[in-house]
Specification:
Layout (H helix, E strand, L loop, with lengths): L3 E8 L17 H9 L4 H8 L2 E8 L10 H21 L4 E6 L5 H13 L5 E4 L3 E2 L6 E2 L7 H10 L3 E3 L24 H15 L2 H4 L5 E3 L10 H6 L16 H8 E4 L6 H11 L4 E2 L9 H10 L4 H15 L6
Helix pairs in contact: 3-4, 4-5
Amino acid sequence: MQGKIGLEEHFAIEDTINDSKGFLPERVWPELRARLLDVHDKRLAEMDKHGMEMMILSLNAPAVQAIPDAKRAYEVARKANDLLADAVAKRPDRFAALAALPMQDPELAARELERCVRELGFCGALANGFSQVGDPETVAYYDLKQYWPFWAVVERLDIPFYLHPRNPLPSWSRMYEGHSWLLGPTWAFGVETATHALRLMGAGLFDEYPRLQIILGHMGEGLPYSMWRIDNRNNWSKSPHNCPAKKKMTEYFNANFYLTTAGNFRTQTLIDAMLEIGVDRLLFSTDWPFESIEDAAVWFDSASISEPDRIKIGRTNALRLFKLADR
């Protein structure tokens, strides 16, 4: 399929590049580093080769979210966003941008988001999971009440928010001791992000801000296959959810979330996600440079789905969600 659009596609700046070291073997670090710092050379060549018209770019992980000092996080986010804006301006036909945000301070995050959308022309935002605040051992999840004014700004700007994974803190990772292979994309990323997404649902956030749209990668971090069970918990005893949410979690999942194919190139999983959340809420992505554009494109172009569904997932859903046709 020609004209594909991907939206979990990463870059890095010198201030954040080493955050990506260790996710792949040391022998491939020079190649991964070069890919993260590049925008217009090998990246564009790979896109051209595999029918990918556009990438919506975002900063690598955990980056800003792992800087406990809010002022420093703000400075790094602004620097990354300015550099990304310059890169996109050179090829606006091929690239768009998601804002990096200093979520350590909701007011600073809202201010930077407004600047990125209104002044730099960004089409959304991405945060790499929870933020470390004040010190490395203190974390904040975005269902907390201090973030609700920030979410009001996201809703008012009418832009999507990508909730991207990060690993749990080492001090919170005893279950992985002796099994470090379970960290990162293999398992821990999905567990961490799915839990964060459920916290947003259970907090009643979407009752207060019903037009919010949250994006999850990797075919939904396992959530599509658990939503029925989550809502059915103790259903035989008619026990309500012990949380502020007014609706079933499935209702929020179907109304307030989009899923991408990033890093999860399996047709059976795609079809299940289509059945759970609907084809209009699925989006093609590759997870470059941590995954291969070729692997993603070859799989997606031949996946056993209808051509109208392929076009929606591969292109038109992203055009609509990010208002790219209006650019």
